[in-house]
């Protein structure tokens, strides 16, 4: 018997492109496929389609960006993006931590080359502002300030910055589910340490 997730993917595959875009908008907020299908009303004959911006109360909350749960989730994804890119580059991630305020976090990893350090530094800004722009429309400029300093220190001009961002973007695109899963764990546990040779 097929699981609800398998059935959902079959239904999604049969949707028109316009309907899939509406579903994808809900998935971009971190919802699973089943929830996204229901929220978008893509399977309902009682149209119109719903996209996240139609939920004005939720959209206003996300635009304001001060809700504690939202701040914690954004911080967790910020740190997870750093960690996933570091891992993909073959670096050992040592520790991830979120402070009690939910806003400040740290991810530490083993010593790396300048190019690797730049890609890891670029990861959070690329993830929050590009991959998760719908989930966090206010962005995370304050959280990425130190990352930007590290990025600039480890590149030689605009070309190096863009190269690091491009590398981070490619990795994050291939490991999207891993970022979200690690962020969910970090948001729950607040502190994760990794043994050498292990990623969980």
Topology, please?
Elements: H1 4-13, H2 17-27, H3 33-40, H4 56-64, H5 68-88, E1 93-98, E2 105-109, H6 114-131, H7 145-153, H8 158-174, H9 176-189, E3 191-193
Helix pairs in contact: 2-3, 5-6, 5-9, 6-7, 6-8
GO molecular function, one term: metalloendopeptidase activity
GO biological process, one term: proteolysis
Structural summary, described in words:
It is a single chain. This protein is mainly alpha-helical and 200 residues long. Strands 2-1-3 form a 3-stranded antiparallel beta sheet, covered by helices on one side. Helix 5 packs across helix 9, helix 6 runs antiparallel to helix 7 and helix 6 crosses helix 8. The longest helix has 21 residues. The protein is globular.
Class by alpha and beta content: mainly alpha
SSE order in H/E notation? HHHHHEEHHHHE
Number of helical elements: 9
- Oligomeric grouping of the chains: single chain
Strand residue content: 5-15%
Q: So what's the overall shape?
A: globular
Question: What's the rounded overall pLDDT mean?
Answer: 85
Q: Major sheet: size, sense and barrel closure?
A: 3 strands, antiparallel
The value of Rg in angstroms is 18 Å
End-to-end span in angstroms? 31 Å
Number-wise, the strands total 3
Q: Which regions contain 5 or more consecutive residues with pLDDT less than 50?
A: none
Order of strands in the sheet with most strands: 2-1-3
Which range best describes the helical content: under 10%, 10-25%, 25-40%, 40-55%, 55-70% or over 70%? 55-70%
